Amino acid sequence: MGLIVQKFGGTSVANAERLRNVAQIIAETRRMGNQVVAVLSAQGDTTDDLIDKAKEINPKASRREMDMLLSTGEQISCSLCAMALESMGVPVVSLTGWQAGVQTNSAYSSARVKKIRTERIQSELDRNNVVIVTGFQGINKFGDVTTLGRGGSDTSAVALAAALKADLCQIYTDVEGVYTADPRYVTGAKKLEEITFDEMLELASLGAQVLHNRSVEMAKKFRVNLEVLSSFAKKPGTKVKEVAKRMEKTLISGVAKDKNVARLALVEVEDKPGIAYQVFSLLGKENINVDIILQSIGRDGTQDISFTVRRDDADQAKKLLEEYKGTLGFDHIDVDKGVVKVSIVGAGMLDNAGIAASMFGALYDADINIQMISTSEIKVSVLLDESDGNAAVQAIHDKFFGE
Amino acid sequence: MGLIVQKFGGTSVANAERLRNVAQIIAETRRMGNQVVAVLSAQGDTTDDLIDKAKEINPKASRREMDMLLSTGEQISCSLCAMALESMGVPVVSLTGWQAGVQTNSAYSSARVKKIRTERIQSELDRNNVVIVTGFQGINKFGDVTTLGRGGSDTSAVALAAALKADLCQIYTDVEGVYTADPRYVTGAKKLEEITFDEMLELASLGAQVLHNRSVEMAKKFRVNLEVLSSFAKKPGTKVKEVAKRMEKTLISGVAKDKNVARLALVEVEDKPGIAYQVFSLLGKENINVDIILQSIGRDGTQDISFTVRRDDADQAKKLLEEYKGTLGFDHIDVDKGVVKVSIVGAGMLDNAGIAASMFGALYDADINIQMISTSEIKVSVLLDESDGNAAVQAIHDKFFGE
Predict the structure, then answer these.
(1) Which of A16, A72, A98 shows the shortest C-beta gap to B57?
(2) Nearest CB to A69 within list B64, B80, B93
(3) Are A12 and A231 in contact (CB under 8 A)?
């Protein structure tokens, strides 16, 4: 039929039984007449265990040696998976990142894929072999092992699918697909059959931890058809593509909640030009990303500037800005970590002005107060009190997806 | 001063503390003005743990995938050791077998080193780096990872020392060197300052498990100066070289005991030509090595043929020969697993006919009965009842090394 790249995450390959299950999925895909390239993460906690080992020896180990260490995790899961396939009589070969020709830049621990030399994989496919490739890793121009950072295996899979011009790239995970909201706490959450790359990007950055953003960006760029599905349930998942089919009346693709957020407020900032610029350049230099920004109208020669950052970054951001208190000229900084960001995402928004209003209406009906608002072409986000988070998602979801 | 290759075994790198100790030895060697290439085995039981993981998945896994799996063990120990050196401020880089240019043939699990392309190591040394290389592994012409089999890390170290024309190859282990007898049960056993390659080869094959034979053979061939020493005690070890200094009166280098031996006797074999040849070709085909052979003088048209094999091989040898009972024409087979082989080794024997006699005298004085005898140019071995083993070694050791 075609060439399919399948990626299996750490949970899917955590032990012998699950590795056998993965091998069965691969074998079944091949039996249907497909060529298969499978990309595997390290088993379960292997990577964290290796990091602990390193920390015990040297908490400030170089990234080069960390990559040398961590890359063993995928080599173990891949060779074991190949053995499972061998036991089923499936011809197979496992390849490390360097054997698979995954060339990266030299940014150890967070390398970017530059090019994939597919000769070896292609020759193994031509010999009728299933090819298992270690995710998360490659080789740089010095001949050293690099890793791609968190979510790197998704990126490896998409990069391989692009380089091999695969017909489909399936990302197997522990959820059955992308939902209209988190099914663990939203009643009536439905699995989406299809979703666009842009929607997926917004959802990923909003805390729907299904696919790593880098991989979706790459898939969009190289037009790789993605499918997110579960390695445990034998069901179709969610297809991620350029244009998604959607039922007429569902205007948005999903509702997402992101708890990793905090609100900072610079109170009584002197009302002089360039202050906002100064604040956000300072934060940017320290790699602190600012999301929603609200600048109050000036009064008595001062104004307030509120903005959100990742909750993990809040303390560092406060400390940094306080160092420049004199230059910036503000009275004090408020930090609120008890907030949550709730967002709706949908390509349909572009043509429908009433969507944001519907969302605000749902929150008003549920008696939920909105602190801040931010919008993009395919997204509306609101900042709420954390205690309102789940009720807000449910109310919005009912409004858009309710019967 | 020079270039030193240092090899550290699995016990020496078993945990964080021991890895730090190894890093200290390397750092100290470098501080003395030497360039250092260190070859490491996998930590402690890592290799066995990985083998267990593989067996759980597929007891008949291909050797190619086993090598892919097992080679991760050394990659872990080497990157961790590099991190330990980094924490001491020592410039260092760890290299896998393929990065270090260790090219082997394609016999997965028991590959032979064909050639080492030293460019990468040399350039790292030129940049003043300590180089840590994974032992036990290389790469074959297909670009696949191979392992060298048991004792492979010793072989890696010697091969690297030969290729780099190192001034010395130090094998760090958990004993302090090579002794005149096993110090665990022989009173007065002394560490040898020097020993010849040939003596070391005989001692290794006789059960003194200090160095792997393949590595000694290679060291002899390429004239690599070896030193066996402990990574725990800061003392000089034993030097293994072409010609060894020895005190005038010590005619032998050591007394060894090998319990992995069994005696088989074919009783009442028909006295016809070619029988011995048939017996030993049959065993040879099954890779059963025969050591001491004793053919009795024929009587009444029959004779007895006794020989020793490894104790592990005794049952298989008996079974095999019984299948050919008709062709070979013997009455029955006796198997005695309660025997032990005690040997003296020494290059000095070549010029001194009285040495074997001294050994037999020592055993006679201790009332120990000799069952079989075998001699080579630098070795005399006797087969004894197992219960006499330790007393025999002590008596012989006293005779040659006693005050």
Answers:
(1) A16
(2) B80
(3) yes
Which of A50, A74, A80 to mutate against chain B (most B CBs within 10 Å)?
A80
Per-residue burial over B96-107, b = 16 or more CB atoms within 10 Å of its CB, e = otherwise:
bbbbbbbbbeee
**Global pTM?**
0.83
Spatial CB neighbours of A28, under 8 Å, sequence gap ≥ 6: none
All residues at 6 or more sequence positions from B110 whose CB lies less than 8 Å from its CB, including other chains? B147, B148, B149
Look at A53 and B76 and tell me if their CB atoms are within 8 Å: yes
Residue B84 to residue A53, Cβ atoms within 8 A: no
Cα radius of gyration (chain B): 24
- Set of chain B residues whose Cβ sits within 8 Å of the Cβ of A56: 16
Q: Give the H/E segment covering residue A309.
A: strand A302-309
Positive/negative CA dihedral, A212, A215, A218, A222: negative
Q: Could you tell me which residues come within 8 angstroms of residue A357 by beta carbon, excluding any fewer than 6 positions away?
A: none
What's chain A's Rg over C-alpha atoms?
24
Residues of B in contact with A120 (CB under 8 A): 143
Q: What is the mean pLDDT of each run of 10 residues along chain B (403 residues)?
A: 94 96 97 97 94 96 97 98 98 98 95 96 97 97 93 94 97 89 88 90 74 88 94 90 70 88 91 81 87 79 88 93 88 94 84 83 94 86 94 94 80
Burial A296-325 (b: 16+ CB within 10 A, else e): eeeeeebbbbbbbbbbebbeebbebbeeee
pLDDT per residue over A164-195, tens digit each? 999 999 999 888 888 888 888 899 988 889 99
A contacts of B120 (beta carbons < 8 Å): 143
